Backbone:
DNA sequence: TAGGTTATACGCACTACCGCCTATTTTTCA
DNA sequence: TGAAAAATAGGCGGTAGTGCGTATAACCTA
């Protein structure tokens, strides 16, 4: 596994000493880390294709950690977030968790605990990425179908025989067979079982 | 909708004045409420078939709210929990949320906010119940299959034709057809599409 | 030990699906 | 406006699945 395929732990904190100590901690377990001094700096540099997780200070000048979380949500960017906070605020923690933060940790934090959460976050990110990737693949395949073919596919998945599909759509049995054959080819399905699995996963 | 089919809001708090005010609040929006003075009392009386959600005080003499949450987890009881706490403790809130609490609210709480969360909890519970019920139905059907039939079913879902299944299992093509017919009847499937949908949902 | 269940197997007729070919009309888009 | 794509439809031959009837052997249980 080369560096490009590795997960990165993104650290966003305005306090340079915190950044340095976090980076040191993360690299001590041979993980790749990147630090940013502000939420905006992170937003400007981050590409959703980069796998990893985000360690985020709640209170920062400019855009706060919570605002960054919200912004990422709006942008449709789903990366596991571990919130770091100096002063405990239950309501804020609950809100962040509801919005999808996977953790909310108070400073000063226990190093090992943080590393454990980072591991959990990285694992979750990889799983989500794999899932999204599969969904995207399926969607690409489905996108190749014409409207008529999608219509026929729905009826096939519903278990209707070609004869019934033909009469329901007011077309010939032969045409349904033609559509069906096209669908099978376009979706790379070897048999009906594969076709249905694909449709149901979409 | 008669009372038996209604969701219930279960309140567990050792403070009788809190119990009374919560019950009053809940009943004011025509929801059904039941109060308990201790976690044990709730455990002794609650049956998982009762739909609803749980409002739980974190700090109580005897079993705490968090301990009750854990106990319910061990018992495999999945009911949405709203934690109530007097003193904010971020770590505790995060732990409770990780264990599946859907909310963690500090006293004194805003009435409307709590009612909103209760509504969310009740909705989630109904959804989960519907999902579990479907899963249970499927499992009952699957349980009717003999080991051999399950084996054949797996191969059918994998898309193998009967001929292949026969040679893979070292039995006759005709026997596979017989198993297949039995499977279709036992699972109430009208066609292969339905069969695969059922298998994949299990 | 009798009776039910399970697993096995065959025949026959019918229905459904699959692949490959050709062909016409309509639609879409560059 | 002309080429490409989509939708339509038919033929032919082969493969696969379905329904119904029949039958035997093994096993478990009452």
Residues:
């Amino acid at each position: 596994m080369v560096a490009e395929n590795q997960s990165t732990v993104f650290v966003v904190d305005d306090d340079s000493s915190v950044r340095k100590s976090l980076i040191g901690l993360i690299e001590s377990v041979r993980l790749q880390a990147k630090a940013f001094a502000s939420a905006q700096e992170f937003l400007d540099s981050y590409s959703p294709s980069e796998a990893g997780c985000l360690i985020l200070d709640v209170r920062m000048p400019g855009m706060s950690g919570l605002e960054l979380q919200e912004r990422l949500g709006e942008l449709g960017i789903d990366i596991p977030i571990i919130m770091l906070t100096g002063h405990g605020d239950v309501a804020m923690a609950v809100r962040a968790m509801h919005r999808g933060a996977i953790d909310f940790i108070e400073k000063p934090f226990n190093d090992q605990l943080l590393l454990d959460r980072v591991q959990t976050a990285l694992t979750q990110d990889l799983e989500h990425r794999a899932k999204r990737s599969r969904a995207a693949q399926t969607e690409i395949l489905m996108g190749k179908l014409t409207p008529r073919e999608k219509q026929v596919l729905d009826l096939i998945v519903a278990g209707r025989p070609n004869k019934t599909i033909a009469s329901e759509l007011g077309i010939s049995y032969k045409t349904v067979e033609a559509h069906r054959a096209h669908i099978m080819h376009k979706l790379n399905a070897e048999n009906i079982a594969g076709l249905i699995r694909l449709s149901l996963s979409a």
